[in-house]
Amino acid sequence: MMQDVVAVFLGIGLSAACGFRIFVPLLAASVLALTGQVRLAENLAWMGTYPALVAFATATALEIGAYYIAWLDHALDAIATPAAVIAGTLITGALIPDLAPWLRWTLAVIAGGLPASVVQGATVLLRGKSTLLSGGMGNFLVATGELLGAVLTSALAVLLPVVTGVLVVAAVLVLLLLFRRKVFSRSRPDPAGRVS
């Protein structure tokens, strides 16, 4: 039971890292499985094989490089958003093998897909603001920050899964509250009767 709880928190942390870069946490999960640090669900055991490791390492290198190409970073965001949700859900589902499939995948969507989508959404907004304010010149810094976020979040999730998972949950809640406040504050009329 305690292993399942730790695995869920590990999944939450790695899933959040998927919002920064999709393949960095998948590579981390593959390394963890190959070294025997985690046990993967039977139908996802392929993630812990050497061909998967090579594929994830290659995809990681290509993804990192592609985000430094000015026009390609925005195109990748359109693909990366649904892919991050899928990757986050997949990682979390793979890490909790001892639950019934319906419970595992329900938990994986909530604990894996949600953090990945929130972090990915925040990075898309940040890149959009960077492009608007700097004409795309600041996107290099955004790409570097996202890469560091993916590596650090993945490393912290592996080293301190419970702490990282709790921090990710708190960060996701704060981001969702900020987004909700921003959306609803736009639709409220001000005291003079004008809609802001």
Walk me through this protein's architecture.
This protein is an all-alpha fold and 196 residues long. It has one domain. Helix content is 80%, strand content 0%. It has seven helices and no strands. The chain has helices at residues 2-20, 23-34, 50-66, 70-95, 101-134, 139-159, 161-187. Helix 1 (2-20) runs parallel beside helix 5 (101-134) and helix 5 packs antiparallel against helix 6 (139-159). The longest helix is centred in the middle third of the chain and has 34 residues, at 101-134. The protein is globular. The relative contact order is 0.18. The model has no long low-confidence stretch (mean pLDDT 90).
- The structure class reads mainly alpha
Strand content: under 5%
Total strands: the figure is 0
Biggest sheet architecture:
none
Number of domains: 1
- Contiguous helical run count: 7
List unreliable stretches of 5+ residues.
Answer: none
Mean pLDDT: 90
The span between the termini is: 50 Å
Radius of gyration: 18 Å
Shape: globular
**Order of H and E elements:** HHHHHHH
Q: What fraction, in percent, of the residue positions are helical?
A: over 70%
